[in-house]
Design goal:
Elements (H helix, E strand, L loop, with lengths): L1 H20 L6 H32 L5 H24 L1
C-alpha cells in the first residue's frame, strides 16, 4: 500500500515537471479546452451565487427577502455582463 502511495505521489509531483519541460505549440485544442473550462467555471460561479442567495433569503426576515433576491439578480447581471465583455475582447 505504501509503495502505491509513493508511486502516485511521485507521479503527481513529477508529471507536471515533465510537461513543463516540453515547449509545445499552442494548438486549437488547447484554445477550445481553455474556453470550455472558462465557461464551465463561470456556470459554477453563477450556481454558487444562486446558492448564497437562497442561504441569505433563508436567514433574513420575510420582508427583506425581496431585497436580497434583487441584490442577487443584480450581481448575476453584472457577472454576465463582465463575462460577455471578457469573451468579446
Amino acid at each position: 500500500m505504501t509503495k502505491l502511495c509513493m508511486i502516485l505521489t511521485g507521479g503527481i509531483i513529477f508529471i507536471p515537471a515533465i510537461a513543463w519541460a516540453e515547449e509545445a505549440p499552442v494548438s486549437e485544442l488547447a484554445f477550445v479546452l481553455n474556453t470550455f473550462s472558462f465557461l464551465i467555471m463561470g456556470i459554477l460561479v453563477m450556481w454558487m451565487a444562486a446558492g448564497f442567495g437562497m442561504l441569505e433569503a433563508g436567514l433574513v426576515r420575510s420582508k427583506n427577502t425581496a431585497t436580497i433576491c434583487l441584490k442577487i439578480f443584480l450581481c448575476s447581471g453584472l457577472q454576465v455582463s463582465f463575462f460577455i465583455c471578457s469573451v468579446t475582447t
